[in-house]
Structures
1.
Amino acid sequence: MVELLESSLRLGTPLILAAMGGILCERSGVATICLEGAMLWGAFVAAIVAHYLHSPWSSIVPCLVGGALVLGIHAFATQKAKADHIISGLVVNLLVAGSTPLLCKFLFGSPTNSPNLARADRFHELAIPFLSALPGVGFIFEEMPLTYLALILPFVLHRLLFRSRFGLRITAAGEDPDTLLSCGVKPDRVRWVALCLGGALAALGGAFLSVSHASQFTRDMTSGRGYIALTALIFGNWRPLPTLLSCLLFGFADALQIRLQSAEMIPIQFIQALPYLFTLVVLVGFVGKARPPSAIGRVS
Amino acid sequence: MLIEFDKVTKRFPLTTANDSVSFNIALNSIHGVVGENGAGKSTIMKILYGMYSHDSGEIRFRGERVQFSSPLDAIRRGIGMVHQHFMLIPRLTVWENILLGQEGSFWISATERKTPQLKPIFESSGLGFRLTDTVESLSVGQRQQVEILKLLYRESQVLILDEPTAVLTPQETKDLFQRLRQLKAQGKTIVIITHKIAEVLELTDTVTVMRQGRVVAHAPTHTLDAEHLTELIIGQACPPPHPRAQEPPGQPILEVQGISTRSHRAPLNKLKLTVRAGEILGIAGVSGNGQEDLVESIIGLCPLSEGKVQFRGKTMTGSTYERLTGGIALIPPDRLDEAVVPTFSVEFNAILGLHRGARFQKCGILQRTAITKHTETLISDFSVSPPSPVATLGTLSGGNQQKLVVGRALASNPALIIAAYPTRGVDIGATRRIHDELVKRRNSGAAILLISSELDEIMALSDNIAVLFDGYCAALFPRGQATELALGRAMVGAA
């Protein structure tokens, strides 16, 4: 059981990081299906930087910048060029999905994956003294550095969103940009900042996949986790703390799926479909009660 | 003089909104700018507030020539405006709405009562809400108070209010006026844009009357009376209202028999009403006491938990569409939400709800010629301006939109007319036109259910007046026996 929970936590980590980024973007009023693209790009950038610089820590900053750039494209398209948010998000996703294998081929000769990272080039568990020895909950304190971040981040974001000038303006931009403008704040600027920050966080979620969970970049390695993060944040009603819980729930579904693969009675394809099925059920069954930001996706 | 307009002219592509407008607003006064919709009164104030720039002439503020390039400039100089449509974010709290854009420090606290600008307001109390309440939980009147608080927090010395009473109940209007007088006593200057004559006479010190973009009068309020003011506003003596036929009412057309609803808004509670042919039944009441549910129960949008509604002696069971094409006409309570599609043309709006009829479509293909003809008839019958069937509806003034809505509802000669807030946000000329039409229909035998928050309107038109309070009929007055006092008491449940 502890093993299952631990694996839920690990599989939940990229979802949490991406969903927190997504909350920033979506609360500012921009529909952000390109979380997927930002994650995949983050995974790619982190893997190649860690490969060349031989340190997982060195990959963090380039990865954040990379994510900010990817959602910067989305910000430009939606805020400056007034494009439809879904179309722009789709384009960004396709751009990343297409360019990463191309760059991989160019750099490493193979379009499907980057070289395996040496043990020293990726993240490892970091046990926190004393806490990791606690009976029962000790496993939480014997995790990857990015997992710790993912567990702290929602609380920071909660405080930022509901108790700061920045958060107030983000919410206002997502609720009623005209009113925000009448108060003398330009909503598109607020959204630029929110998207770049959000993109950086989502990219970090991708980095977890390539330099922490696995040890290389593989083509389309996010396999829809960006969309699952999006579902999780909708399930969490665009609020950081409920979203943290829903991400852990999705992580649990994924962990269960992996565990059940060893059971031979059920065809493996069905089991692998479990997290996606779970997403579908959640979206159809529960999300009706969620209340999205009023102005989300509206092209001004 | 605090503010001086000197020959200010503003042209829009098709019209001249302000034609050489000159008048002054004195420091520490309550100044009324009155006129019909489209008279240019909002435009001149929006120029002052920096939302529009003028083509010629000049504006002086504290003796100094100014031209604000944005509302922000105006706010910085101490001029604030409350728009007709509130600039508030419903999901945020009152305090967050007040702070937005002027937060001060990066971290903000949930409430801060010690703000010096707001102190006088909270000390005089009577707000009825807390800073931590979300704006969506407040009534319309309270939201307006939040708008005023916003201006005070931004240290506005001049407060411009655009049609502030259009959405308020009589009591809220009274409270607002008291608050405005208080603010004047604290040294503020208040400009109120309105078309309601009684309010101008009651509240203002000086008044500027505008008509077709020009100032037609500028005088201290005490030198004017209601009749004179009306004449100045509409440019002619008032035509006499449509004479009322003196026949006893006929058969009951609508019988509401003890209905209750379970909606999340104000539900109905065993409500009983009867409207007869040739009778106008006025429903007085503070909004939010079951008006919406009453309308929706009759047209079949709101399920009943008990009781029934009879139309011409038969219990109604049909769909909303069947009801609305089977002799019931509806003038919906909220024009923009329920009656029109602002982005559609006038002619499409003129057939909304009728579009399935054989007149306007054949095998699902809209018959443009018939539609245009129908629209042109409506336009000329109700003098809708501009008289173009292809104009986008949203470009028409509220009064003209409403005339079209009324015309559309009455086109089929209905036996029952539900007129919910038929003149909300409508200018004097259009109001008269709509009132006349309702009386005319009553005289020719239609049953009319008139719901309104304007007591004047209810008292002028109704044969009987029912007071709706908390979902039931709290009092019933025959024509002539209702006084404003008695109605007002019944409206708050003190009958």
2.
Amino acid sequence: MVSERDLKSQFRSALEEVTPPAPWLKAAVANELKKRRQAGLRPAPNPRLVTSFAAALLAIVLIASLVIGLRLWPFGPQPAHPGIRVLTIGEYQAVTKADGSRFLTTSEFMCNSFDDTTCLPKVALADAATQHWLDDLSHSQAPARFAVLDDVIRRNLARVLAVSKTFVIAFKAKDSKGTGAASTDISNVILALEGLYGDITLSSQGTLATYTAFVKADAAALTAAHLSCVSGQAPSCADDIASVKRKVEAFEGNLVRFYAPDSLAAKDSLLRADLVAADRAIALIESALPAGNQSGVDAGLVALRQAVAQTTVDAASITG
Amino acid sequence: MAAPPAAMTLVREAQSGDDVAFEILLNPLLEPGYRLACGMLHDPSAAEDAVQEAAVKAWRKLKQLREGTDMKPWFLGIVANECRSAKRSRWWSVAKSVPPERTTAEPADAVLAGLELRRALLAMEDGKRLVLVLHWYLDLRLEEIAAIAGLSVHAAESRLQRGIHELRQRLEGQRG
């Protein structure tokens, strides 16, 4: 076996190969900051705690609505709307496989310059594949096992279409930062969809050991997540929430990828319900953040912390 | 992690809007930030982007930096977050720099070993890769790693050990 010292030495050599000198970096960063200042960007004000009575009251109302909403939230299989057929597990997996692979294939491209005339047609193809998948999901209903992920997939597909529009606008305007930002957004969503695609198409019942190992690891990752949004150590609330969202979605995905053994089905159902509660709280924060609605953010954070805490309890009851 | 008094004064000046003070604080952190980003992304162009975006975010969020807190772990934490977002970029990539060509011929085995190690590292979960890069590539202490990764020192140490173990296993798996 390689000694730790040798492994460290190999590690450093391997990374030095992908770290060429960048003597221009300091100037590039200074230039970027100057451009942002000239564009009118200003440092964000110090985040304040909500202290006014009105804000606190609003937070209480939002939390109460959220709690009521979550209680009413349907977790089990829903009656199908007229004309919408509930797919079997096999049918849903087949649709996901066909639509998902088309989506992933058409989304896998890279534009390197604004003169690239093939770029926008490629975006249009990816949009068509995204819309096709979304339409197929709208014309059918997911079986109970996939109901939660179906909802997550729809949200992510809608997000792809929205970000794609901003990408096209930025590309036409030859706005390098705009295309870069849209590319980062789209990459994260595609990555999430890729994971969900795998979870659904490969879904099978986990053994007791596999299932509990995933629950233990995912619950620990979620519990360890930053949720402060006002801490000096948190780069930004949006980053914190994006990170927690990825963890919640990965957890939900793993519960489908290796669904619970029959003996743990009831406990698994509670765990899923609390993850959906976390999903809803994240959606609340995500809608409040861009609007600068601090009360909404705070209410969402309270609900999210409750959901995460409850998830920890659920996971502990499963893993013993 | 406490900042030295001189740095605390600079932080206060930067927080009150002194852009020169901010750049004095930031400049020594760019090189470790770039090394961290290269270690996480294995793509120098993407690493430059991540450091630039991290610098802008740090400037925007400077008022969130707590009184007396060292700026280095705070900034490297922002770089780490940017790397998570920048991972596997799609649709848009403009090459800014080309890695220098090798001037000396390296033994094929060494090149292959580097490739294998980077592949094994990229296959690992973000959190483990981060602590490995911080510890072995940036030579940071566990206290600093814990502050950057948002972990307790104990948890950082434990994650590091698990990371080393997993890296070994992956390398052994690749090499048969």
